[in-house]
């Protein structure tokens, strides 16, 4: 998961907060299945236990308690939910959460793109030889 490098919030001079992306290191240490398992554990920490999804309320409550992000505004929380809410139900299910975490990791996205490109090139290269 990403963690803030500095406690400062975005400003006009610095519209994007600085984050250190830990997902590539986690992927390297844990492997694919281990990383997905850890993302699922993270999902469970943030989800609403009764509904089984991450809601505005559960993210608001748990981001402060679990992640120490108590200074998030309601708009920050709404934007986080909206960013990953593919089925537009106002909440994040486990798959949406995991996909969002990958999307928010530029290094993992680049590594995934490279792996897909290599696999496609290998597949088409193999077919041309036969």
TrEMBL record:
Instruction: Give one Pfam family, short name only.
Output: EF-hand_8
Its recorded name reads EF-hand domain
Domain EF-hand as annotated: residue spans: 72-107
Q: Which residues form a coiled coil?
A: none
- What's a single GO MF annotation on this record? calcium ion binding
Q: Which PANTHER family does this one have?
A: CALCIUM-BINDING PROTEIN KIC, CALCIUM-BINDING PROTEIN KRP1
Q: Keyword Calcium, does the record have it?
A: yes
Q: Which PROSITE patterns match?
A: EF_HAND_1 (PS00018), EF_HAND_2 (PS50222)
Keywords for this protein: Calcium, Metal-binding
Tell me if rRNA-binding is a UniProt keyword of this record: no
């Amino acid at each position: 998961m990403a963690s803030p490098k500095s406690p400062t919030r975005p400003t006009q001079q610095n519209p994007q907060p600085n984050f250190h992306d830990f997902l590539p290191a986690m992927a390297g240490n844990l492997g694919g299945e281990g990383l997905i398992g850890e993302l699922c554990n993270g999902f469970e920490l943030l989800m609403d236990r009764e509904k089984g999804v991450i809601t505005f309320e559960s993210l608001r409550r748990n981001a402060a308690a679990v992640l120490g992000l108590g200074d998030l505004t309601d708009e920050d929380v709404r934007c986080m939910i909206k960013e990953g809410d593919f089925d537009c139900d106002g909440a994040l299910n486990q798959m949406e959460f995991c996909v969002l975490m990958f999307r928010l990791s530029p290094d993992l996205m680049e590594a995934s793109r490279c792996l897909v490109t290599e696999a496609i090139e290998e597949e088409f290269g193999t077919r041309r030889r036969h």
